[in-house]
Structures are given as C-alpha cells and as structure tokens.
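input
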Amino acid sequence: MRTTTLGTTDVKVTELSFGAAGIGNLFRPVTDEAAFAAVEAAWDAGVRTFDTAPHYGLGLSERRLGAALRGRDRDTYTVSTKVGRLLEPHPEGGRGDDLAHGFAVPDTHRRVWDFSSDAVLRSLEASLNRLGLDRLDIALLHDPDHHAEQALTDAYPVLERLRGEGVVKAIGIGVNQCALPARFLRETDIDVVLLAGRYTLLEQEGLAEVLPEAAARGRSVMVGGVFNSGLLTAPKPGATYDYTPTPPHVLDRALRMKAVTERHGVPLRAAALRFPLGHQAVASVLSGARSAEEVPDTVDQLRRTVPAELWDALRAEGLLPPHAPVPAGMPVEETGRLNGEPWG
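output
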C-alpha cells in the first residue's frame, strides 16, 4: 500500500488509514474479538496508520487499538490520537450509557472540554496509558470549534514544544469545518489537518481554503468522513448525512452520482474513497471498520480503477466542480508510487 510522509516530518502514513471510532462502539456494541479482528485484517491488508481519540467510547477505542497492536514493531506503524476532551470519572457513572454522545458504552466517565496546557499534558499521558505505548506519532487538537482561542494560545504551544522534544512527531488539528484549520495553517506551524466530511465526492468545501493553504505551505491533509456518514456507501431514503437524516436535495445529488458511477462500472463507494486522493495535499483517507469482514471490501474499492471518463461525466452533469482535482485513472499500485518508501 502506498505510503507518504506528513508535511515536512518523517511520519509515514498509508493512503488508507484505519479510523478507530467504530471499535469504540460507535452507535452500537462491538465485541473485543471483532474489534481485534478488524485491526488485524487492516494490518494484513497493508494499513499501517491508525487514528483514535479519548472521545471514542470514553477511551475504549484507545484501549482496544493498543491491545490489538501490542507486540508489533513500534517503528512499523503510525498512531494518531487527540486532545481537548479530558475523561473524568462520572459521579454517578455506570448507571446509564453514552449513546447521547454516540457510543454504546457505560457512562463511567464524562468528557470535560479543556484545551489548557495542563489538560493537554494530562490527556496525552492518559492516552499513552490506555494505548500501552511509550510515544505517539501524531497529536491532534480535537474539535476546538468553540475553544479556538484557548487552543491557539494554550494547547498549540504545548504540542509544538512536545514535538520539539520528540514526545510526538507531528501535530495538527482534527475538525469537521474549514475556517478553523485554515486559520491554524496560516498562524501556526502544524503538520497536518484531519478534515472530516468537508472534502468528499459529495462536497468540496475544503477546496476553497484548507487544501490550497496546506499545499502552499507543504503541509498535509488526512481526509475523514469520505462517505459523509454512510450516504455515499448506499444512498437511499433513511440514509444518514453528517450523522443526521439526509435532506431530500442531498439524497437526490448522491443518487445522481451513483447513477453516473455505475454507468461506468464503478461502485459509488469506490469513487468516494479515491476522489480525495486526487489533491496533492491529501496524504491519506480514513475509513473505519467494526469487523474483519468489512476491511477487504474497503481495500478492494480503494484499489479499483476509476476511469477518467467517470470524473468527466460527473463534471458534465454539474456534480463535480470543474476545478476539483481527480486521481489518475489507474490506482497508485499500477502507475507507481508518488513518494515515500514502502514499509517492510
């Protein structure tokens, strides 16, 4: 699987990253065995980049990911986690669940928003303990939408110092919006933006500012939410878009895209996976899995040939902006590597 490096760092990422929210019981329970099998299947497929966060399942995602990676050569994979939500024991924890926040786990802890310098250090230490690791590769400011100033003045300087000390190798921001990461790219020395849902086949808000800023400054973007909460895997009435019911006009657009891709013999989800990789700033796309069975299809779709005529047809029908860059017609494995070196 193709690898590249983030920004000006030596942190390697695979073009497909494993998003570990699902193994943190996102929306529904997953057994330990299924979670471990999903990570194992991703590893067997060549994935070496894994993204998690304390938020995912109140630490369950980090614990399971760390356990699944235990025993592997630490220099052969990249782990990303996040800061901004401290986990504190819930005064009445364990009596209910955390489904209000999207995770099917007991509410043993509560999340406390905190981007202070002390909170960043405490959060990273706790993450290392849950993961069972002695170092992190990537540390991201997680959704500081309503805490932008504290994230800039308190949290970011700590991450910058930790990067200088070698405690983490790369730093950045992970968000579902574009204005804040564009500001961070202009005002700080972050290495990477994890942009969720804002640069997909369905919508390209990130093209206006985030991706050009990253490219101009030699920084990288990792793209999450490539299926827009599942809509681009199987668009139909009742499908979700950004974790809410899909508006009729958005569903219509997705169905029109599906018709175009299938006319060219390509599943919509394959085009959705490959589209973000057409931009020079995009280093990796994230996709989650709850079981081993979900992984092979994702990998197969990413490797599927998407002909140039398909992108042209989407443009002709007004479903893709004329200026949106698209991937080469053949998968990277067939045309040759762009940059970076393969791992092992």
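quick obs: The first strand starts at residue 3 and ends at 5.
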